[in-house]
RNA sequence: GUCCCCAUCGUCUAGCGGUUAGGACGCGGCCCUCUCAAGGCUGAAACAGGGGUUCAAUUCCCCUUGGGGGCACCA
């Protein structure tokens, strides 16, 4: 058997919501492993739940994947389109006596579970139709098709991250393969699709660990090859509790809106559950080279937004100025209402970017820090700046002005002038600079003052300073 | 309830029988400095508890406790 030895991976989200952070990490790990091994990374949309699947969610998932930079190979596969094939497998199992029809009604099963719960017994399907043949009264009645799973022995999931996990087969009940309307369940669809697509490695959330055992029974019944499993520990919120809407920022799109860079997300999510010695800053290229399944941690991790900020600050500083100008421009255009930067604003943004990017942790902070470059005229003062520009400071502003006006408005000349003035007055440079900064930017913190004065130019700078001179 | 998984600083983690238990974020201090950052130096901060195994346990085994996940004709 000359088989393709390259791994085939897949990310298989269900389109019932946005691509959330946990799903994004699962996708990332699959993608990294595929790229690391030169294998294939497929994207399969698990839309067998017709009630809850929406085209909007499909779009959101695709958009999220693209933003994260996780490119998949080949066409997107929609699971529901393969329903006929799934049914075919179920029929075959039925014919081979590896599956059977169950006529138990929903009410009947609910009652069964309630009784089990009341008597403290494990809640499982009791196999009431496993060896029972339908009588005349079942004629024309709806039924589901269940797998006739082995009841003795145990099923062992050989997991790359969790090790060998054993389940007593008595713990696993006969799962539904085909619903009473004839549609396949997720359990059937995943196994059949993974088989048909030649999936060699199944990397997914640990919430699927129990499913793996049940799917293994189906795989055995089908005589299909067993893939390598890797169940990733879940991601919790900052408080350690399950990640939920309450924590906000669930969807990857929310992170984009908060001004995080895709490379930040890839690096952060990678380190959340995977490690390579003491390395923290790991470029995507480096990640592809290093990624392996052995270094995936076993315990659940929590989101740490401070660390995410820190990483994002790093990647912002690493980004090329022109790239950031484009990012900020694009970012502002997505605001409501959208903001459009003129050519002057863009030129100033570009010129100030080396200083600007040193001070921002997110694209939001970057845009806010550049605010004073976007429009002309006197600045509105923020609280701290207003407090600083008290009469005394304004008077000082007026006194400083002549010294500045005497220069040819180059950054170093301006600084020299300000220093000279401060020395003459027996003041520290900061005491002279702060009022100037407040008038120029409307804030008490900004990129280096003299660079900004030079950048804005003599005329514009003087307009802003004179507006607050006492 | 039942099955399964997990457990090192506040957080993410390194460690794979013998270490001054390392790094990163965050926090404190110092330096640099026109502000804010960035950067440099530095400090505090962890092996959940109890039993074993062993000459030796953070490391291996068991129990307890604490988290998490599953137990649908959802995925």
How does this model look, in words?
- This protein is mainly α.
- It contains 20 helices and 12 strands.
- A 3-stranded parallel β-sheet has the order 1-2-3. A 3-stranded antiparallel β-sheet has the order 4-5-8. A two-stranded antiparallel ribbon has the order 6-7.
- The longest helix is centred in the first third of the chain and has 17 residues, at 21-37.
- The protein binds one RNA strand of 75 nucleotides through helix 4, strand 7, helix 5, helix 6 and strand 12.
The total count of strands amounts to 12
Helix % is: 40-55%
Mean pLDDT: 93
Q: Please state the overall shape, judged from the principal axes of the Cα atoms.
A: elongated
The profile of the biggest β sheet is: 3 strands, parallel
* Gyration radius, in Å: 31 Å
Count of alpha and pi helical runs: 20
Placed side by side, the strands forming the largest sheet appear as 1-2-3
Q: What percentage of amino acids are in beta strands?
A: 5-15%
Query: Between the first and last Cα atoms, what is the distance in angstroms?
Result: 88 Å
Q: Which structural class do the helices and strands define?
A: mainly alpha
Give the low-confidence spans. Answer: none
